[in-house]
Each structure stands twice: as C-alpha cells, then as structure tokens.
Design goal:
Neurolysin, domain 3; mainly alpha; single chain; 3-stranded mixed β-sheet
C-alpha cells in the first residue's frame, strides 16, 4: 500500500498548489492592482508547471503504475477498498490525459490565459474587440495545439468537452441541443404572445452599492451560506472559486445591473459554493474530495438560481424583506406581479441576465461558434459578425456593441473552450435531479416559503456532493433518477412553469 499512500500525498500536494493558483486568480479578478498583471502571469505559469509535474512526473507515474495497470486499468494491489479503486480509476484517467501535455505547453497556456484575462476586461470596458483579438488568436492557436496533443476519436471538440464534462462527446451534445432548438423557440414565441396581457413592471429600484451588498449578505445568511468558510466580493464577471471545503469565494458584479439580477446571480454562485463546501473533508486531495464535473456543478447552481430563486415560494419568503430594504419602492407591486415580471420572457443580449427559456439558446450559440472556430470554418476576426448574426437568428436581437456581444463572457480569455455546453447540460441534470427531489419532498415549496433551506442542501449532500468523482455525471444522473440523461424533464418543467405563470 506504500504506492497508494504516496499517490495520496502527491495528489494532496498538487491540490494545494492548484488552490494557491486559484487564490491568485481570485485576487486577480477582485483586488489585484492593474500593473501586477505581468507578474501574476509568471506566478501562474510557475504554479501550473509545479502542479503538472506532480500529476505527471516519474514519482507519480511509478506509484500509480504500482497500483493499476496503465494500459488496461487492471488493479495490481490486493484488497483495495471501493473508495481506493474509485480514486485509482480517476487518477489513471487524469494521468493519461495530462501526460500528453508537455510541461512547456502547460506553462505557456497558463501564462497566456492570465494575460488574456486582464486584457479582456480592459477590452470589454472599452468596447474594443480589436484590443482583445491578438490574445484571442494566440489562445485559439494554443487550443488547437492542445487538441492535437490530447487526440480525439470522432470530433476535435471532443478533446475539449472531456476536460469539463468527462464522457461527453460532440455528438451527444449536438443531439441534446437539437432537441432543445426544436422545443424552446416555439415555447419562447408562445409565452411572449401571452405576456402582452400583462404589462412589464419596473422591479429594479436604484440602490447604492452598499445597500445592495447588505441585501445580498442577508440573502446568503437566510439560505445558510457559511461566512466562516466563504465570502462575497465583486468582479467584472461573477464567479465562484474554492480551494478547500473551508475556503470558498464567490463574487457578484462590479457594475451591478439591478438588484433582482444580483440576487439571482448570488444564488447561482452560492450553489457552486455549497457544492464545494459539501465535498467530504476526509477525502480532500483525492478524487473523492473533488467535484464530478462542471455540468454537475452547474446543476446545483442553476437549481438555486432558477428552481428556488425564480419560484413563488421563495419570494413569498424574501419579497417582504426586499420591500423593507428598498424603502417602499416596490410597495405598489403585488407578490404575483413581481414574480411574473421576474420570470418575464424576452430576447436579451446578456446570457447571465436571460430568462430560463432563452438561456439555453445563448449557450447553443456559443457551442456553435466554438465548433466553427475549432473546425476552421470561422476566423477569430469574424467573431463579432458571427455572434451578431447568431443572436439575430436564435433570439431575434442584435447587440449594438461588442461589450454586450462577443466580449460579455470571460471564458474565452481563460482558454476555457468546451466549457459553455456544461451550462445547459447543468439545466438538464438539474431538472432530472429535481424530479426525484420533489418526489421525496412534495412539500418543498411550503418549506421554502417558511424560510427553510437546509433540507435542500441536505438532499444535495446525500445524492450529489458526498460522492466526489466516484461516478461520471452521466452515471450519477442515472443512479439518482433511474434514467439516462434526457431533455424531457427540462422541457416539461419549462412548459408547466410558464403555463402556470
């Protein structure tokens, strides 16, 4: 068992280094002074090199090959526990993938993406795609090189998907997204037509930043966010970053839009944080102490943002509190009017501010663009034009600026190609999980209305968090629901919700 124990020690050390790198990333997005960007890029480059060496170096390979056959996955140590077997399977998978990436490439990728993220924020604020374009082209070249190094069986995009959603393929995502493209535009048009009977109300009273912060902190306290283990700050693009179950950071926008959007965004990021805080501490540093995938992560965050945050029961609880905080600005708007307006369907330019029906159409556009870039059908310089035409086709709107168009998301500056599909996969996972959850908790709405939220986290802890990476996301959804992943629960949920509204 000495080889196995050595694997645990090396893996824990690597996770500590990755946690330090993530903390530097959080600082870069929140408090870092602008002129520190070049130094930060070098720091990230060094930490990426150290982590990569720990995961792929001779010591790790020797220990891993002493426990499991790297060729066929056969275990070589007798009397392994099921936990140990699960860890070895994931370590082998990750090792074989990461070993294909030379240390020099990993360093270059980390350094380039760190610089690109800083320039992206400047480009977005200045509405200058030309400023970001050289970095975007450099990152795309690195992405293509990464694909060549990793290899793929059917489509080059598979290599990127597998990083964020292990086991997912371009064919699978294509098929699911085509089903959504058939159903969602029809529902979108129907709801917009029916909404003409209900005027759109202003539910966004102007509030100073400090008052918004007070509301968001009260919200997080109400849903059980542990400020002894987490904190809320501001960044250009909201995100969640965790380094340990006892250290989880979330952000809201530096330039907030309206308090309702900020509430939904904060619930979304809190969902990510709940997942990280809920991972088993006894397995920190091993695969059983890590999240399964970004799709499952998104299933939790979208659950808190949409199934709870946009629901009538939640606002029966929180609306009186919000009314008190906004000094009577919402006094003339009934609870039912507020919830209907909050869930109003309309073409929107910004993905993170979109309604539940159009949200996946935003994601589908990004998926299509990424594939076209990887296949060489779309050149980076033509991205704004392709973006605008895609928005017009899928959502019926066209951005007047790149700030609200192709520069709105941080992901491409991070080099995170293959990430966007996980948002909609998260919606699908969440819908399938919620069917089971609501069967076990048919009174969930009444409990939420009374300000009870622990039972939600407890169910997620039991069914999702505690497993770490024991299963793939597709295995987990089938284990929990008894069914393979499908669009049907999500589409049914949307039709039922909006018919009731």
């Amino acid at each position: 068992m000495s080889d196995y124990l050595n694997l645990v020690a090396l893996s824990k050390r690597a996770q500590m280094i990755e946690g330090i790198s993530a903390l530097l990333g959080w600082d870069q997005e929140t408090y870092m002074p602008p002129k520190a960007a070049p130094v930060r890029a070098e720091q990230k480059k060094l930490l990426a090199e150290l982590s990569h060496e720990l995961h792929t170096g001779k010591e790790f390979e020797k220990a891993l090959s002493g426990c499991i056959n790297l060729e066929n996955g056969r275990f070589l140590v007798p009397d392994l526990s099921e936990d140990q077997k699960a860890c070895l399977r994931v370590w082998r998978r990750d090792f074989l993938r990461q070993k294909k990436l030379p240390s020099s490439f990993v360093q270059e990728f980390a350094s380039t993406s760190s610089k690109a993220m800083f320039v992206w924020e400047e480009a977005k604020n200045g509405n200058s795609f030309q400023l970001f374009l050289p970095y975007f082209e450099e990152l795309l070249d690195l992405i293509r090189k990464k694909i060549d190094l990793l290899g793929y069986e059917e489509h080059p995009y598979d290599a990127l998907l597998d990083e964020f959603e292990p086991g997912a393929t371009t064919t699978l995502v294509d098929n699911l997204f085509k089903q959504l493209q058939l159903a969602l535009p029809r529902l979108f048009a129907e709801i917009i037509a029916r909404q003409k009977n209900y005027p759109e109300l202003d539910i966004s009273p102007p509030l100073p930043l400090h008052e918004q912060k007070m509301i968001l902190h009260a919200l997080l306290n109400d849903i059980g966010f542990d400020f002894q283990r987490g904190r809320l700050d501001r960044s250009a693009h909201p995100f969640s970053e965790a380094y340990h179950p006892d250290d989880s950071r979330i952000t809201c926008r530096k330039e907030p839009t309206c308090i309702c959007d900020e509430i939904l965004t904060t619930l979304h990021e809190a969902g990510h944080s709940f997942y990280e805080m809920g991972l088993p501490k006894e397995h920190v540093g091993t695969p059983l102490g890590q999240a399964i995938s970004l799709g499952i992560h998104e299933s939790v965050s979208r659950w808190w943002e949409t199934r709870i945050g946009r629901s009538l029961p939640f606002w029966k609880f929180f609306y009186p509190k919000l009314q008190d905080r906004v000094h009577g600005e919402l006094s003339g708007i009934s609870l039912e009017q507020f919830v209907r307006t909050l869930n109003r369907v309309k073409p929107s330019l910004i993905r993170t501010e979109s309604d539940e029906i159009s949200y996946s159409l935003h994601v589908i556009l990004r998926f299509q663009i990424e594939k076209e870039l990887i296949e060489g059908k779309l050149q980076p310089k033509d991205l704004p034009e392709r973006w605008n035409s895609g928005m017009k086709e899928l959502l019926g709107v066209e951005p007047a600026s790149n700030k609200k168009g192709c520069l709105q998301d941080v992901h491409w500056s991070m080099g995170a190609f293959g990430y966007f599909p996980t948002y909609t996969l998260g919606n699908l996972f969440s819908a399938q999980f919620f069917e089971v959850f609501s069967h076990h908790h048919p009174d969930w709405g009444k409990l939420v209305e009374n300000g009870q939220f622990d039972f939600i986290r407890n169910w997620q802890q039991k069914e999702i968090f505690r497993h770490g990476r024991r299963y793939t996301s597709f295995e987990l959804v089938e284990k929990v629901s008894g069914k393979k992943l499908s669009c049907e629960p999500y589409i049914s949920y949307l039709f039922e919700k909006y018919n009731n509204l």
